[in-house]
Amino acid sequence: MNALYRTFILCALTFSASAFADWSLDDKQSSVNFVSVKKDSVGEVHQFKQLSGNIAVDGTATLLIDLASVDSGIAIRDERMRKFLFETTKFATAEIKVKFPAKVLASMKTGDIRVLDVDATMSLHGKSVEKTWPLTVFKTKAGGVRVLTHKPVLVNAADFDLTGGIAKLKELAALPSIATSVPVTVDLSFSEKTK
């Protein structure tokens, strides 16, 4: 094996190892939203303002949601959700973890788009549930990665022992009903970690 060929192989291996580096979440460019429905037909959009996360070299992506940062646009409702629904003094965060095919992401060039159905584990309120999430991944001009749901993911309150909290919210607000299944969407921007 001549020196030029060895150099070529070394460069190729180095590129493949670094093409998909560690990425960190840009929380200012990211969002997690869910829609609640009350009185059978009144829908309202809520969000979480504090997010963190990363994508590791092996393609494992982790999103951490600060549940105390819930923002419904109504302060008293936010307080009640923190206290009675999410019980943030005991369960401060929710976690969503997915495993992207590392080779697929490493091969993406600027402007490339991949539509993936990815197995995800959502941990919330002391419970963990596995579900397939429909995600679209973009390789951005800035060298980052954008990940978003291309259709909402339905999260069932019963899977996370949240129905009691919903019943309490319904009682406090004197509502005839609050839906126990909510659609969730994410739009996440990741940038390559500086070394």
Describe the secondary-structure layout.
Layout: H1 3-18, E1 23-25, E2 31-38, E3 42-48, E4 51-55, E5 60-66, E6 70-71, H2 75-85, E7 93-99, H3 102-106, E8 113-124, E9 127-139, E10 145-149, E11 153-156, H4 163-172, E12 181-192
Antiparallel strand pairs: 1-4, 1-12, 2-3, 2-12, 3-6, 4-5, 5-7, 7-8, 8-9, 9-10, 10-12, 11-12
Helix pairs in contact: 2-4
Fraction of residues in helix = 10-25%
Helical run tally: 4
Outline type: elongated
Low-confidence runs = 1-20
Describe the main β-sheet briefly: 8 strands, antiparallel, barrel
Mean of pLDDT:
89
Secondary-structure class? alpha+beta
Beginning-to-end CA distance, first to last residue: 33 Å
Number of strands: 12
Radius of gyration over C-alpha positions, nearest whole angstrom: 20 Å
Share in β-strands: 35-45%
Order of SSEs, N→C? HEEEEEEHEHEEEEHE
Work out the oligomeric state of the chains in this entry.
single chain
Strand order of the largest sheet: 1-4-5-7-8-9-10-12
